[in-house]
Amino acid sequence: MGIKKIALWFILIFSITTNFSFAQVSEEFHEKLANLKWVAYAPTNFNPEKEIYPSEVSLRHDLEVLFQAGFNGVVTYGSNASLALVPQLAKETGFSGVIMGVWDFDNREEMDNAMLASGYVDGYCLGNEGLNSRYNADQVKEAIALIKELTGKPATTTEQVFDYYNDNVLVIGDWIFPNIHPFLSSIREPDKCVNWIGKNYEILQKHNKDGRPILFKEAGFPTAGERAANEVNQRNFFLELEKTDIPFVYFEAFDQPWKRTLSVEPHWGMFKSNRKPKKFILAPNRK
Length: 287
Known about the structure:
Blueprint: H1 8-17, H2 22-35, E1 38-40, H3 56-68, E2 73-75, H4 86-93, E3 97-102, H5 108-116, E4 123-126, H6 137-151, E5 155-156, H7 167-170, H8 190-207, E6 216-220, H9 231-241, E7 248-251, H10 279-282
Parallel strand pairs: 1-2, 2-3, 3-4, 4-5, 6-7
């Protein structure tokens, strides 16, 4: 597998320049998982299908908008091209936590970029809903073990919530990081969506024998593309979800017009693609 070919110079440099404690990293990170206000972030001015990547100025502007909106933890999806800059820019902006995504962990550029950013990264997520399609369980476990060994940072992967009812998936990684979307399971009313998420959270807790931290990586509600998808329902969904003790990442930061598989896919952002806020962000007394 390509990840075995990661340059040995990185191991040498990291061992010389870094002094860390696995126990301290884990304890601090688990605290951040539980207490930060996380947002799932794909940039504006971005289209990976056309290999269009935002400038550093654009990335910094995105992060400033999100930080000013009250988020202090950011979750990314890839580490190639300018996306490699996000962890450093996020910490410089004021974010307390960064979970860096590696979309293709068999890609040398992505893995090198991710490891070189480790000084600004609190944890890694390798892959996203790719099990048994883009990679298998052994491959993602190998990649997680490698990046943990070379950086000393916790790492995991992400699959859909139902996949975690399989104990073999549940134990991959240092924390449980599922995507959960009631809207895509034909639940349209915001309060029922939140109840459904709560029921799945309870199921995960019962299956979670090792006591791994649980944080839903994606929990959101689209604002266009279908009749029930609108800004009022998105606002109500998040306001109801905030009343619970369910740990989740707000999905997602900005609309992504390049996504076209489903009619709702371009419209999950809490901000439009021009960074203009939607109703949830503008809601009075929002946390």
